[in-house]
């Protein structure tokens, strides 16, 4: 009897230890349907936040409900429920929102624990509401950098730069300023002739006479000369000298006549 009791006690202890070990080492379910995302404002937060997530696709047609679990260090190792099973807002043809029911801190406190730094995996299950059979999962990670603050970016990942964009084929895309297209010189040569020309003397005569109704061809601008102003200057000079000589002659004739007239009077 004593041996039998001792054996039963040993089996009970081994079963309890195995159960505890199995719970502590619970594996995070793989994402079979897609991923979860959070809005930009929730990509960084604290332990008192309760983010809402969006699935990348809808649940399978044979799933009528969903729930949410959180896996992480400490009391979160076995996976703690963040949203109880519900069908509110579920979709089968597109992504849909899932609201975390409690904050990270409240979930930990409800299980006599605290939030610890490390990686946490958020897992949404699409399930059969009656049997609770899991039909597929969506997942995403986040990291608590301390006991209070979390981020969806792995703090251990190296910083990335976005100065250049390289495609999978190895080609690098660069931005080249685009200049306006230039026209062919032969196609941009003007065929309009100017109505004005400048002669060697620097005078630029302008022909303002409209073309005649008879279709006369306008004279060549290069053949134009200074406009005529009347009698040549040489003729004017000769005429002036002639008038001056005639005037002098008239004065002399007049004086001569006066002298003759005076001599004709008797003394």
Automatic annotation (TrEMBL):
<feature type="compositionally biased region" description="Low complexity">
    <location>
        <begin position="184"/>
        <end position="221"/>
    </location>
</feature>
<keyword id="KW-1133">Transmembrane helix</keyword>
<feature type="region of interest" description="Disordered">
    <location>
        <begin position="150"/>
        <end position="228"/>
    </location>
</feature>
<protein>
    <submittedName>
        <fullName>LPXTG-motif cell wall-anchored protein</fullName>
    </submittedName>
</protein>
<keyword id="KW-0812">Transmembrane</keyword>
<keyword id="KW-0472">Membrane</keyword>
<keyword id="KW-0732">Signal</keyword>
<feature type="compositionally biased region" description="Low complexity">
    <location>
        <begin position="151"/>
        <end position="177"/>
    </location>
</feature>
<feature type="signal peptide">
    <location>
        <begin position="1"/>
        <end position="26"/>
    </location>
</feature>
<feature type="transmembrane region" description="Helical">
    <location>
        <begin position="233"/>
        <end position="253"/>
    </location>
</feature>
């Amino acid at each position: 009897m004593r041996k039998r009791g001792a054996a039963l006690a040993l089996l009970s202890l081994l079963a309890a230890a195995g159960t505890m070990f199995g719970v502590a080492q619970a594996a995070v379910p793989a994402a079979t349907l897609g991923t979860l995302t959070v809005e930009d404002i929730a990509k960084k937060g604290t332990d008192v936040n309760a983010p809402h997530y969006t699935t990348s696709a809808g649940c399978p047609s044979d799933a009528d409900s969903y729930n949410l679990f959180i896996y992480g260090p400490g009391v979160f190792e076995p996976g703690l429920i963040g949203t109880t099973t519900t069908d509110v807002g579920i979709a089968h043809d597109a992504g849909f929102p899932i609201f975390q029911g409690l904050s990270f801190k409240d979930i930990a406190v409800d299980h006599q624990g605290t939030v610890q730094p490390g990686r946490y995996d958020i897992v949404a299950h699409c399930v059969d509401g009656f049997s609770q059979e899991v039909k597929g999962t969506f997942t995403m990670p986040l990291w608590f950098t301390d006991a209070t603050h979390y981020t969806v970016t792995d703090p251990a990942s190296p910083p990335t730069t976005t100065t250049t964009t390289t495609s999978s084929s190895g080609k690098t895309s660069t931005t080249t300023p685009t200049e306006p297209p230039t026209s062919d010189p032969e196609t941009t040569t003007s065929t309009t002739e100017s109505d004005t020309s400048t002669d060697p003397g620097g005078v630029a005569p302008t022909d303002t006479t409209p073309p005649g109704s008879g279709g006369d061809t306008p004279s060549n601008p290069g053949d134009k000369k200074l406009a005529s102003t009347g009698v040549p200057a040489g003729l004017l000079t000769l005429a002036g000298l002639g008038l001056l000589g005639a005037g002098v002659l008239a004065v002399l004739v007049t004086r001569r006549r006066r002298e003759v007239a005076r001599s004709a009077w008797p003394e």
